């Protein structure tokens, strides 16, 4: 039986989009609401709405929605708050079913804005129109070359991580996330002031979406008493990981959130935290953790770990010790390797015996070179049943042909043991080794601490949710 | 009264250095023990010791220490462990007073290595020779163009941060720390296996050193019962900040440390932590925090904060909320600005009133441009007596002439209010704005979280130690 189409389908897979209020001026950010669709070669039909001009960026422009003869699946309302009501009235007349309200200046901006938002919400509801926002940049669907945003986009890399935001936290860093951090994005929805569509609906949709391997959501508040939210979260977490970054944890921040998306965060953070854990979700404490964990799950899902036993290999011995501390503090433990592994590792030791874990890459590569060391280390560790996952440092400056030297790292994927890598900070700007690793779904992090915390999150999810 | 010269003076300010065992082969890391001194134009006299060649890198080479007619202030013993004893015997004969033993393979490498280290230590002690190491790369003194290390150096940037290490943690990332992280280094000592010189002596020396504004030390273990260490720490912390990164916090890591520098960490981490706090030292939990805090103190020492009231300004509103959480969690609190500041800030608001703190740079620059926004924001906030420090995000892509746009940031220095900056992650690689800020001693961090944690460390030090 085919599943009933979800109302959010028309947001993520619209056959036609009308963009109201896109500026001709490339210096204005609203220019990119339309320009991105064109540059990305969005697969559907696009209708610019602008009463002042005959065409816009090479497309025929229409004075209003009614002038478009085609059916419009999705309207992007890009006009300022004060003009938004008129656009919504046009949507009613044109029998549009789905709208994104981009502008800010509503419930987050005092009494007048609140009143306006309430009026628009009422009109939408009376006419059965579903709306994302206001104060929202949405949606993104990389498989469909669809991105609504203020930042210029020329490429959307594809992947299995889908995102729910309550603010534009991701927006100015999106190009960086895609091109430098190598995050494989599938879908993205920014709920904004949540006048209509909320986090529970978004979660349900992505939970059922076969293209979404991991959901990462940033929340400032939860609808009502949160019961529906935590129930949905629990149900989905059994099938796929959900990473949650909840801000407004402290009273000062909660107050700040309300003046920003106009929504009030309720309840103590400790209660929220415990409910998250019971639901099997993975909490991120910082923006860094949020994207770090999403990247790890995107690379490793679906994967069930046998245990929490990790191998650490770092360049300076002292860094191996510090990274070991990080492991223990985040629920991983140093693997006690087999006698066979111990013996194999001695063949890449300096002229004295060496501790296999944490493994000192500095002293071993000094005597044996990185190529031999990585090969024997990876063979020994991935074949050892006492090892569940690995975190390895690489030295960018030592690597002339990354695929030749790093090829042994692929053994970790073959043996289904999550491997996270971090490069020693370097003045060298050539990121070829990092790109090579990430193209093979081996996630790279800026530090050992972040690599280990991400592996710990994968282990936590595996233990709590996978039988 | 002139102070008695400290024995460590001959390590940091030697008039003559002999380097034993530097390789001619530029591919061998021991090559750089000598090459760095030459490239950096070390101000003292340098004598390469190598029995096989008449000259080395343009300098006359000597078959042994005795063949050098000059007095030798410092011997860098760069030969493998097995040959080190012979070099020490030569040091005795030549009446050398100071030696660094570079090689590993001693107490960290099993019984034979331990025995060798004990024998060398005894010989040194009998002859009144002070020694750093073994398993040590030391020292660095940027004012003297002196750097002993395996990594190639062509430049040492100068500053007021001095470091004590117990391992080569810093070594492979040193160029990055200087050139990309813009850390102003003064002196550095790597204690290695601590056969002789220990952390208390190093701490005393840097505590009395007028060029050292902040001391940052990485420890895996503390001598004996730690009484002398904590007493020295307390005494120095009253005069200058001491940042401590102690690894081997967990039992697994403590064990790993002992197989790496051959020194055993004793006692529980909680006890250590509480003793650190009582001594007024600032603990770093990770490698990132260690260098982050050192950079903050290098920029802001000496500076007494009036309180913990911070202003946050971030691009996406959601990031301001998250950064507010970070502040509260680390002991800072959001400044409640004056009515005058509130009014000034409204002149850079969008067409609705805006919350002054955390300040939403995204929406305000969208309507007013970054130049005007920064100027009015900085004027208002630095003149407000309710504000003690600031953390501000910048957007690299928006900045064509950094000095023009960022000049208002200098007001924070004038008004003696610590300001830390973080750039939005960006695909843009041009770091000119970051370099401009850091050349004016405004520290830049990779994230809001790290900026805020560094300011919190400065506040913690100020509250605990400065009257």
Provide keyphrases for this structure.
homodimer, 467 residues, alpha/beta, seven-stranded mixed β-sheet, 18 helices, 19 strands
Give an overview in words:
Two copies of one chain form a homodimer. In chain A, helix 6 runs parallel beside helix 7. With 467 residues, chain A is α/β, with parallel strands linked by helices. The longest helix of chain A is centred in the C-terminal third of the chain and has 18 residues, at 448-465. Chain A has helices at 9-12, 31-39, 81-94, 111-126, 174-179, 199-208, 227-237, 251-261, 269-279, 287-300, 317-329, 339-346, 361-368, 370-383, 402-406, 410-414, 432-439, 448-465, and strands spanning 16-20, 45-49, 55-56, 59-60, 74-77, 98-101, 130-132, 140-141, 146-147, 158-165, 185-190, 214-219, 242-246, 282-284, 309-314, 333-334, 359-360, 389-394, 419-423. Chain A is built from 18 helices and 19 strands. In chain A, the strands form four sheets. The first copy, chain A, has a seven-stranded mixed sheet, with helices on both faces. Helix content of chain A is 40%, strand content 17%. The mean pLDDT of chain A is 93. The interface between A and B is large, with 79 and 79 residues.
